[in-house]
Design a protein that fits this description.
106 residues, six-stranded mixed beta sheet
């Protein structure tokens, strides 16, 4: 109930999804972004991201943060996110970066 989910479907199969929750009234966090490998490169991730960002800004957030695998950081950079440092290792082996994007209402 405290999160907003966005998904795109091909019939009854999800092909892209993401979740937004709030760390505070002014800070949203995007988590669990995924696009089916067979559907990558078609702009679906950008559509999910734009939807989640829109929800965050509409709710009053001026900052969105996320932790991403290093190999997908360029995707988020293309969408205006900046690298703010290491987010540690997921499961002790998968390097993640913390990224953020500020909006005009901050």
């Amino acid at each position: 109930a405290d999160s907003f989910h966005a998904a795109l479907w091909d019939g009854d199969a999800p092909v892209a999804a993401g979740r937004l929750h709030f760390n505070s009234p002014l800070e949203g966090q995007i988590r669990y972004m995924a696009v089916d490998p067979n559907w990558r490169g078609l702009g679906l991730g950008g559509r999910i991201l734009a939807c989640l960002e829109g929800q965050a800004v509409t709710a009053g957030a001026g900052l969105i943060v996320l932790n991403v695998r290093e190999e997908v950081a360029a995707f988020y950079a293309r969408h205006g996110y900046r690298d703010v440092g290491s987010a540690g290792l997921l499961f002790g082996v998968i390097p993640h970066l913390k990224m953020e994007k500020k909006f005009a209402n901050l």
